[in-house]
Design goal:
Largest sheet: 3 strands, antiparallel
CATH class: Alpha Beta
Shape: globular
Strand order of the largest sheet: 3-4-5
Radius of gyration: 14 Å
CATH superfamily: P-loop containing nucleotide triphosphate hydrolases
Distance between the termini: 25 Å
Structural class: alpha+beta
CATH architecture: 3-Layer(aba) Sandwich
Number of helices: 3
Number of strands: 5
């Protein structure tokens, strides 16, 4: 459950950016949603971030992309997915 402060921050960030944003909780299954956000360019806000992060996030956080033909791709776990230029 979100605290009042967390809800205010989410509202503020969403209002400032004036864009649709997907909030992903790292204590819940999030990989499929993250893949979709990367492919379709939906900005992501990671919630419940602890001191250490899942290693699957490393290529995303480092923007470790590569070209495959004319597409920009990233490895996310066992999957290779297209990296949208609008993803943040």
């Amino acid at each position: 459950m979100l605290t009042l402060l967390q809800r205010l921050v989410l509202t503020f960030v969403g209002a400032c950016c004036m864009i649709l944003m997907q909030a992903l909780r790292l204590n819940m299954p999030y990989i499929r949603d993250l893949e979709n956000c990367i492919q379709f360019g939906t900005p992501v806000l990671l919630e419940n971030v602890e001191e250490s992060l899942d290693a699957i996030l490393d290529p995303v956080l480092q923007k470790a992309t590569f070209k495959q033909g004319t597409l920009t791709m990233v490895r996310l776990g066992d999957s290779t997915i297209e990296w949208s230029k609008d993803f943040k």
